[in-house]
Amino acid sequence: MFEIAELGQTLKKSAYLKQIPDLRTQLLLTQQQLKTCDFPVIILISGVDGGGKGEIINLLNEWLDARYLQTTAFDEPSDEERERPKFWRFWRTLPPKGSIGIYVGSWYSEPLSLRVYDKIDDNRLQVELNHINETERLLIDDGALIIKCWLHLKKETQKDRIKTLAKNPDTDWQVTERDKKHLKMYDDFIRVAEQALTETSTGIAPWLIVDGSDRRYSSFTVGQHILHRIQHHIDARAAQSAQETQNNGTLPINNLQKSLLDALDLSLKTDKKTYNEKLAHYQGKLSRLTRYARQQKRSSILVFEGMDAAGKGGAIRRLIHAMDARNCRVIPTAAPSDEERAQHYLWRFWRHIPRAGKVTLYDRSWYGRVLVERVEDFASHEEWMRAYAEIVNFEQALTDHGIILLKFWLHIDKDEQLRRFKEREQISYKQFKITEEDYRNREKWDDYKHAVNEMITRTSTLEAPWLLVEGNDKKYARIKILKAFCERLESALDSQN
Amino acid sequence: MFEIAELGQTLKKSAYLKQIPDLRTQLLLTQQQLKTCDFPVIILISGVDGGGKGEIINLLNEWLDARYLQTTAFDEPSDEERERPKFWRFWRTLPPKGSIGIYVGSWYSEPLSLRVYDKIDDNRLQVELNHINETERLLIDDGALIIKCWLHLKKETQKDRIKTLAKNPDTDWQVTERDKKHLKMYDDFIRVAEQALTETSTGIAPWLIVDGSDRRYSSFTVGQHILHRIQHHIDARAAQSAQETQNNGTLPINNLQKSLLDALDLSLKTDKKTYNEKLAHYQGKLSRLTRYARQQKRSSILVFEGMDAAGKGGAIRRLIHAMDARNCRVIPTAAPSDEERAQHYLWRFWRHIPRAGKVTLYDRSWYGRVLVERVEDFASHEEWMRAYAEIVNFEQALTDHGIILLKFWLHIDKDEQLRRFKEREQISYKQFKITEEDYRNREKWDDYKHAVNEMITRTSTLEAPWLLVEGNDKKYARIKILKAFCERLESALDSQN
Question: How far is CA A322 from CA A326, A408, B203, in A?
Fold first, then answer.
């Protein structure tokens, strides 16, 4: 696949100098226009050593308005990054909508290099590439434009290039022992790169392969490619959003299907005495287990979803009572901040992924996408439909990293909800919890139930199953949740021994 | 000073159980009210080992709504934290306005422990405590409420407490070798703590010293203290803001004082040939020097201020042209995001402090506080007046950490500005740079000049001096800036050898 980049294409200095001013003006104007658009631009600059990645990145920073772009090179991960799933470091640096992020190497560097050094086999490389494709698709589905450029060099050219650099005292610092070693591995590297590029040159995010041997040619080509892709994307998005407004309709609800929620036995109860005993028992146990988990650097993430007044807050309080407040954190999911709104909807959950050994409890979560956003029409049919797969992939990244993930659906029936609303209105420090909106949501009870049913069906996986909690009796629900977390911790910590 | 906490105060179980429900209700209601207030609450829980810090923090998490508070314990700093000034890790965890942050140990832990272990002397401790006082004052001046609680134990009580914990298999994990060692150092610790508490028990952020020997007494006392302080602060802030609106006036400008800006020779010029030679020379030099700086892990921060159209962007572009885009970042200072608005005005600059060896260029900066915010009346007279000292302290934290800090004021005269405005309006890709607002700002030219003059006078320090740049000739200005950065890097890197 690299043949086209070995033809030795060049651009004369006179032609280059003639075309560059216009390219720069166009880039600046387009970047201006981009600022008002609702998508980010992610530019990946990869390729062989000596292919000119650094030079092109410097040029792009000069041609574009550097204040509205962000260049990221990933060196060794920091300890804060190592303690989280691999993609966390990419998520934290993603450019917000309307701006440009340039990545050197990016998410491709590590898997490629691991494969070249034979630290992983072809199958594992394949798995890594699938994760990359999933992540790229997720961002693109959300509107992002991903531009991937690969700078190629023929074997002889790479050798010459590195020799020339090493000879010049002004540039010899650029040539490291690693480069010399890589030179010997050229054939291996090209083989792996070809596999990776083939697998990830998708219709939505194709690779541009550029001959890096002539700097003028390659930088002009990359610059022009970026310009055209952005211009095209701005137009395409505008056309698309006009179309989407027309198609946005909801599917009829299939009421014949029996709901998983209806199958719950909401009469389950725990009497006060048993409750007090079990509460003390499981809280003691949880206290010990979370301490061990901290020592073993195993993190946990707990997700709480449920109808309004289902008892999420009370259950969370019983859990944190048993844990060391220094190691756990509750994240309430309210309206997103404007920094959060300028990113993919999963971004604001990624940013709170705990460090090693800590516990994060999400009071409502990313499932809002397929619950409230679906029912209230905040997300289009396409958006929430694809969210199931996006969420499953996201959660897989967490569990693959060794994070213990539990998801609770707290369920109550409609009568019990009304009873609790009325009760809250009577208690001074609970009044703030009841608003008009709660009553409005209540009217959409069946829509929510349908959405929950579909959510559970589509996102319960072996590693991250949903636990349905019969919530009409608060005591029963709290014990069930405490017990489930204890058992999950116990088996996870055991299985490590 | 700890005598009062050695009287052996206790609270009977019956009295405790009677009073707690009311305290909890009040805390929840007050926390509700706080959500709409424009200040954060910072609670520090410190004290001797075994004093019950962990228990009180857990209780506070239970009593308050844990979703709207954040508990932070500082273990070993991460590498991302170590590469920045000491206070960076506190800034990044500060609670936003309307919410509560609880800190265990906090900024007091390190200096206290260094002194007890004799790693620093009394003078150095004093300097550290001054920094703490400055930081607390800065937050308080911005409206923050800081509540500092110290849990004390008598020597014998501490000994007993640790013995009891060690004997019980359920609690023995809490007793570390460090604790046993600390027990022997009790007298030293108390002496140092007394000094620290005396120095930092300021009128605006006094310490509450609590006897930690009876858990019911200490937790109730701390809980009640927090409640009262928050309630009082809510009332005081409301009263204060009513008053402030009346006092908000501007001082008359003293036009007799000769301006530093008038003393600049704006006729200074560099001809094209000299410019091209020097540009190439200093860019080459800068490229080498920033590479060395990266190797030596010395970071740089460059601040660019100047009248509109003074040439900041062009100067920045010439600098980044010479640097590796992977190691430098331009931060434009536009309107703050809502997450930024919910914090102290310095917060949004702290968050971009570079990691070791990197360069951050601020295109406009924290000096907006004493320039645009002053002239446009966005900040009150008190706010911008105290900002000078706040900024000097902030910059001192940067330079103390070894960061190279340069501040450029680019100056042009009024005629030159008009010429550039007109010119920009003619060039397609520069049109977006000119708005109505630019012409409006122009009308306040003298006010800005006066503010600049005062800013330079008050914030030029030996370690972080202002460099005034004659900007009517862009070529002259760019060379002056490039040269200054090179020389500063050269001497800073030399002085390390």
Answer: 12, 18, 37
Q: What is the mean pLDDT of chain A?
A: 90
Residue A264 inside a domain? The answer is no
Is residue B252 included in any domain, yes or no?
Answer: no
Please answer yes or no on whether A66 and B102 come within 8 Å at the CB atom: no
Instruction: Tabulate helix, strand, coil % of chain B (nearest 5).
Output: 60, 10, 30
* Tokens 């430098």 found at: B328
Tokens of B262: 């008038």
Question: Where is B447: in which H helix or E strand?
Answer: helix B445-459
Retrieve residue B207's tokens: 């310490």
Q: Report how far apart, in Å, the C-alpha atoms of A193 and of each of A151, A179, A292, B96 are.
A: 11, 16, 42, 46
**Amino acid identity for residue A465 in this structure:** P
**Residue B33 is encoded by which pair of tokens?**
């009210």
pLDDT of residue A497: 47
Q: Which residue of A has its CA nearest to B26?
A: A429
CB contact under 8 A, A58 and B28: no
B57 to A326: CB separation less than 8 angstroms, yes or no: yes
* Sequence letter at residue B482: L
Q: Which of B28, B284, B363 sits opposite A67 (nearest CB)?
A: B363
For chain B, what is the mean pLDDT? 90
For B113, the domain range is 3-241
pLDDT value at B353 more than 60: yes
Distance between CA atoms of residues A121 and A123, nearest Å: 6
Say whether pTM exceeds 0.90. no
Q: Which of A182, A141, A163, A190 is nearest to A39 (CA)?
A: A141
So what's the pLDDT on residue B177? 80
In a domain, A266, yes or no: no
Determine, for residues A325 and B429 on separate chains, whether the beta-carbon distance falls below 8 Å.
Answer: no
For the domain that residue A98 is a member of, what is the CATH number? Answer: 3.40.50.300
